[in-house]
Amino acid sequence: MTNTKSTPTELGTEPIPQLLFKYAVPAIISMVVASLYNIIDSIFIGHIPNDGPRCITALAIAFPLMNLSAAFGSLVGAGGSTLVSIKLGQKDYPSANKVLGNVTTLNVIIGIIIMVLGLFFLDEILVLFGASDETIAPARDFMTVLLIGNVLTHLFFGLNHVMRSSGNPRKAMLTTILTVVLNIILAPLFIYQFEWGIKGAALATITAQTISLIVICHHFYSGKDVLTFSIPDFKLQKHIVKNIFAIGIAPFTLNACACLVTMMLNNTLYKYGGDNAI
User: What is the pTM of this model?
Assistant: First the structure.
């Protein structure tokens, strides 16, 4: 399917410096905004009445598990988006749509697996990541909400990657900014006004990602882009899955190593300085 309103052929025709600027700048802005959100979210959690320091420690303990989930998200998202760019550059639109469908299905499958295993072994994982008797409860509260919404998180990041690579870097940036803005609005509301504490912070994150995911899904359902959702494309194809994993293994390894480093750091800090050091 081709659509005159979309311009994916630029990936195979435009000068590389121009493409690099067009695609890199929105991605950089998205990463900066997301990093600022992490700082602001930590401030909100740190000011939870009578429980701020303990919740900040719980957040640090949950970080490795979040990194591990992000690693699997990068495995599919980065791998799939790169493959989509290649197919669009080759003007192979049917294959690009199949990649979109396979990315969606893989994100759902991996998201469910991580959710089930994470919830089942949550306490053991958190202890491994440096949780103590004092901090395991808030860490459990935070990660339980995130794990329940893990499928939505994977779909958001995976489809956002694909939207960027299909000729819509600005729109991908705006959906990321929308997520951050919604988070900043909802977090204090859920944490303080509704008195949900650290659970409220996690729920604000999932809610914001879900709203942005709806925007992304509308983009792929609207028919205005060269890529559109099609039920037959959701069926996994071995060669597509293999290529997605082959490309995505590098960012997966980076995030997995970040998980390992944070886990080791948390345990070292707890050993020599206790919860406050974490």
Answer: 0.90
